[in-house]
Structure formats: C-alpha cells, structure tokens
Design a protein that fits this description.
535 residues; alpha/beta; Rossmann fold; 2 domains; 4-stranded mixed β-sheet; 52% helix
Length: 535
C-alpha cells in the first residue's frame, strides 16, 4: 500500500510536482479572489484558496471528477466533517509532545495510534457506504487503498493490541506511592509501588460511616498529599501530575517499547499521509458546500469543456454571478458571453446599478472556478485557462495622497501592462472614473489599444458611453499591428428606467439611458417646469 503520492486533487505525482514548483500556477492571487467576491462565499481556514488555482487541464478534470463524487455522495462530505477533527487532535498531540520535549511519552503514543485507528475507521465506513456510486478515479483509488488497509491482517492485529493496551491504561484508577525516610523522617526517595484498578477511599470518619466500614485497608487514605490541596498553585499541581505520568510511562516502558518500534514507522507513515491530505479534504468539502448551496437554490451548474490555453476560448451560455445568486431572493439573471474573432475585448456600458459590475465579476469568477477545477455557474461553457487575471476595480488606495486619484489609477494600469500577456484576462470596472469624460475617454482609448495589441481578453465596464463612438478608430489602429477586435456590450433597460440586468452585444445609447433615468426621477425639462408651476 503506497500512500505517499496519493492525492484527491492531483492525478499523479508529476502534476503535483509541477504545481509545487510553480510551473502550472497562474498569477491569480488572494487579492484578486477578494475583489471578485469569491472569498465571502468560499474560503478556507487552513490555507489560501489561491494556492489551489492551476493552469493544468488534467488537474482541472481530475478535480471535477472528485467533486462529482462529492456531490453525488453526501456521506463523503460527512466523512470529512468527522475526519478532520481527529486529524487536528493528532496535530495538537504532536505539538504538545514537541513542547514537552519528551520523545518517550508512551501514553501519548498510544493516544496517537488510537486516533489513527479512529481515522481509518471513519474513512473505511464513509467510503464503503458510497463505493457503489463513486465513479471518479480519486475516490475510487482512495476506497481501494483504505479497504486494503482496514481489512489487512496487520491492521486487525494492531487494532486488537491497541484495545488491550488502552484497556489496561483505562483500568488505572489509582497508584500506591512509597516514600523512603531517613533517621530524621525526611524523604530520601519515592516511587510507585503499585498500579490499582480501584480509587482510594477517604479516611474521614463520615466517609467510613457512609461505607459502614471502620477498618483501614490498602485503599484507605490516612492523609492527603499536599500538592493537591485547593490552596496549591497550578504549577505545583502540574509538577506532581507530570511526575506520576513519568512513573506510569516507566512502568509501561518495557511492554510498549518493542511494540512501538515495530509499528511506529507503519503508523507514522500512514498518519502523515492523512495529515498531508488535510488541505485537500477541506478544499473539496468547502467547494462541494459552495456548489451544493447553488444547487439548492435551483441555480444552473455545468461541467465546462476545457479548451487549450492557446485557443483563448470563452463561450458561456446562461452565465451568472454565483456570489450574487446566493445573496438575493429573486431568480438570478442569466447572460451569454462569448469572446471570439470579432471580440477579444469588450467595452460594457449601461446605467448605474444596471449589472455591469456583476457581470464583470461573473466573468472572473467563472474563470477562477474553472481553474480551481469546479463546476461553473452557467448552463454551458467552453473556456481556456489563463495565465493570470488582473483586476482594476475602484479602490481607496493610500497612494492617492501623493499621486491623486487619476495618477493612482494610471499607475495601477501601468503595472498591469508590465505583467499582462496574450494568455491573460483583464477586468476593468469603472476605471478612470476619477476624471472628466474627455480625459477619461482619451486615456481609455489608449489603454484599450494597448490591450488589443497584446491580444489578451479584456472586459472594460465603464460609464463612458461616448467611448463607444471611438471603438472603430481604436480597432482600425490596433489591427495595423495585429491587435484583436474590440466590441461593445450594453447593460439593458426595459423602459421607464427599469433595469433588466441583461447584457446584450450592441452599441450603447447613453442619451436614452439618461432620458429614462431622468424621467423616472421626474427630472425631464417638462417635469421640472410642472413642478415649478405647482409651487
């Protein structure tokens, strides 16, 4: 049974090593996940979610098969829920042992082995109950490994021996202590005379009356030991407890030492295997919980088709923002979004609170979830991995004190250009909103031309409706250097200023949005005149 290279989220040792070395790790950091809103709905306690993002298509497919089993078999999530606290207890036991510096703590060794056996039992029971519905290679392999382990003669003998030892330890109710005295009745040495399966009894007269026994025997106390008096400090009590534990360890040393040497390597190896899988257990459990919450709300989830990175594909039908979907009571609005030869870059315009930021984040979330190896929030999707996601969202950065808001925005855009490649995704939400529309439109046109020349995918959500009029000229200049095409998207309005949150591929009409909004607030010229006449 070789557990050393097993993983629930990496298909083989080579894929795991590529990730560990950074060869298949995209530039998608925790800050980006925070800006997209993912960490509010899906975060990890024992690690960083960004550490799991990959560009390896094989890894993504392997994880999706693991999540398929998790979604189909709720008992697997329950298995992890029961297993992780046991493994945390093992870690805490090791930490306490390391802090004490006692490498010969046999009682702790028994406890760790007992916890290990418990973890195997939890795994075996959970996997056996789900094995007929498991279809993915990860849980299939784990089931085989754990079944072979749990049903082996060695494991059965280990379990039997453990039960015998723990029974002996648990039968200890008291110890008889002997103290040698010198001629002046001063203690010269002390030791444990016997280990008893009965508690000692108080020698008080009242206690004797209640027991209807006035005789003294070997289990009757004639004087309390001072350090356990209520007036003693915790350090004094701890010192005596450690002394007794040391004595008991010494008594069991002979029977445990040879057995421990035989099983120590075996148990440590298999325990390390489980401890090393803890981050994977948590990742799969939390990912499943996130997806199941969406399923329970009736939201669509799909297994995406993964296109090669060089295909630069993004074709989604019925895309939505999963984090928003979990917050609202109404049905979430679905949108289609496609990057193709006619649009590698989009300029998205529309009314305030019309869904521009929501769809911008939805695009980023779909990309991240793909590269985490998850199901996607859409009816269908064909997507290529990216080597990085760069966001330029509104921020209150401290740098604005020295550079001003516009200067800070331009500096951040410059940093993106220092890193972005043809295989990257760039998301700009209300960028350049710190200046007037004339200056903002000019800078935006230059920035879009630069991204077009690079050939990256980009969504620029903006209030600059007049920027759409410049798209043709930007495209004309960019195509001379082989740039990708830029197109426009519009966040829709149904009329009377009512937002539909539908995103359509069309030319914006900023005046119509303004007219509808002005009318809804009674701010058309006619409304204003009528209001003045009524005064």
């Amino acid at each position: 049974m070789d557990f050393t290279e097993f993983s629930l989220i990496y298909p083989n040792a080579a894929a795991k090593e590529r990730h560990r070395s950074g060869a298949s790790v995209p530039d998608i950091d925790l800050f980006t996940l925070q800006e997209l809103g993912l960490l509010e709905a899906f975060s990890l306690k024992s690690g960083s979610l960004a550490d799991f993002v990959t560009t390896d298509e094989e890894v993504m497919r392997y994880r999706m098969s693991s999540l398929a089993d998790m979604l189909a078999c709720p008992e697997l999530a329950e298995m992890f829920h029961r297993l992780v606290p046991i493994l945390n207890d093992i870690l805490e036991l090791r930490r306490l042992s390391a802090d004490s510096g006692n490498s010969e703590d046999y009682l702790s060794s028994i406890t760790e082995i007992e916890l290990y056996v418990s973890s195997v039992e939890v795994l075996h029971k959970g996997l056996q109950s789900a094995k007929d519905r498991i279809t993915g290679p990860a849980f299939g392999a784990l089931t085989s490994l754990v079944t072979e382990l749990a049903e082996s003669d060695y494991y059965r003998e280990l379990n039997q021996k453990l039960q015998e030892l723990t029974q002996r330890v648990r039968e200890i109710k008291s110890v008889t202590v002997g103290v040698n005295l010198d001629a002046q009745l001063r203690p010269t040495s002390a030791g444990v005379l016997s280990i008893n399966s009965e508690n000692f009894k108080s020698g008080d007269v009242l206690d004797k009356i209640l027991r209807l026994s006035f005789k003294n025997d070997q289990y009757t106390c004639i004087a309390d030991l001072v350090p356990f008096d209520k007036k003693q400090s915790e350090n004094q009590k701890m010192a005596l407890s450690l002394a007794f534990n040391s004595a008991i360890n010494e008594i069991y040393r002979s029977s445990l030492r040879s057995w421990k040497k035989i099983i120590q390597a075996y148990v440590l190896e298999n325990t390390e295997f489980l401890l090393n899988l803890m981050p994977e257990f948590e990742f799969l459990a939390m990912a499943t919980q996130f997806l199941r919450r969406l399923q329970d709300k009736g939201c669509a989830l799909c297994i995406p088709e993964i296109a090669p990175m060089e295909a630069h594909a993004f074709d989604s039908k019925g895309l939505y923002n999963p984090c928003v979907a979990l917050k609202i009571e109404d049905d979430v609005v679905l949108n289609d979004l496609v990057f193709d030869e006619n649009a590698g870059i989009y300029v998205l315009t529309g009314p305030n609170r019309g869904g521009k930021s929501v769809i911008t984040c939805a695009l980023g979330l779909a990309q991240v979830m793909l590269q985490l190896g998850m199901y996607l929030p859409a009816k269908s999707a064909v997507i290529s991995p990216v080597d990085a996601i760069y966001t330029h969202f509104p921020t209150g950065a401290d740098d604005t004190i020295d550079k001003g808001r516009l200067g800070e925005e331009c500096a951040r855009l410059g940093e993106i250009f220092d890193c972005v490649t043809r295989d990257s995704l760039v998301l700009l939400d209300e960028s350049l909103s710190s200046t007037g529309s004339f200056e903002a439109s000019y800078i935006a046109a230059e920035v879009l031309g630069g991204f077009s020349h690079i050939g990256c995918r980009c969504l620029f959500s903006t209030h600059l409706h007049e920027l759409a009029a410049e798209i043709d000229s930007i495209n004309a200049r960019a195509k001379q250097s082989g740039g990708v095409s830029i197109d426009t998207l519009v966040a829709g309005i149904e009329g009377e200023g009512k937002r539909s949150f539908l995103i359509t591929r069309a030319k914006p009409d900023g005046k119509s949005y303004a007219r509808d909004i002005a009318r809804s607030y009674g701010l058309t010229y006619e409304n204003i005149l009528a209001r003045l006449e009524d005064k």
